[in-house]
Amino acid sequence: MKLNRNYVTPFISLIFLVVGISGLLMFFHLFDGYTEVVHEYLGVTFVACAIFHIILNWRGLKSHFGKKVFIPALLGVLTISAILIVLEKMNPPVDMIIINKIIKAPITDVFKVLEIDYSEASKRLETKNIVIGNSKTLEDIWINNESDPEVVIDLLVE
User: Fold this and answer.
1) What is the torsion angle, in degrees rounded to the nearest 10, for the CA atoms of residue 20, residue 26, residue 29 and residue 35?
2) Contact assessment for residue 138 and residue 102, using Cβ atoms and an 8 Å cutoff
3) Which of 31, 109, 115, 153 has the most CB atoms around it within 10 Å of its CB?
C-alpha cells in the first residue's frame, strides 16, 4: 500500500490533538488512571504517523534543516529535555518512591498493605506457577521465579 497524504495528515493531526490533550490532563492529574493508557498507546501511534509524515514530506522538510533557526531549535529542545530528565531524577514522583519501597518491603508487610493474607496470595500466584518459597520481598518473588513484576503485582491486587 502506498503512503497517501489524504490518510496520514488527518491521522497525525487528530492523534496529535488527543496526545496533546491527554498530556495536559496527565499534567493536571485529571482523570488519572485513564489518560495514561490513551497517551501512551496513541503516543506510539503518533510516532509511526510522524515517520510516515516525514517520508511523505521529506523534500519540503529538508529545506528547514538548512535554515539558521534549526540548530538553535534543536539545541533548545535537547536542553529542555535534559533539564526535565535531571529534575525528574533528582525529585522522583511520589508514586514511584512508594512503589520502590513496597517492592523491597518485607513480604508480610506488603500483604497487609494490599489487604491479602499469605495463603490467598500464594494461591493467586500459583495459578501462574509462581511460588513465594523463601522470598522475603515482592522483588524476590519475581526474581526467584524468573517472572514479570507486573504479572506478580497484578495477581496480588486482582
Assistant:
1) 100
2) yes
3) 153
Residue 37 burial by CB count (10 A; 0-12/13-18/19+): exposed, middle or buried?
exposed
Give Cβ neighbours of residue 11 (< 8 Å, ≥ 6 apart): 49
What is the Cα Rg of the chain in Å? Answer: 23
% helix, strand, coil for the chain, step of 5? 75, 0, 25
- The model's pLDDT over 40-59, given as tens digits with 9 standing for 90+, comes to 999 999 999 999 888 888 88
* Contact present, 113 and 102 (Cβ < 8 Å): yes
Query: Crossing angle, helix 149-157 and helix 118-126, to 10 degrees?
Result: 130
Helices (H), 28-106: 35-56, 58-65, 70-90, 94-104
Q: Are 137 and 110 in contact (CB under 8 A)?
A: yes
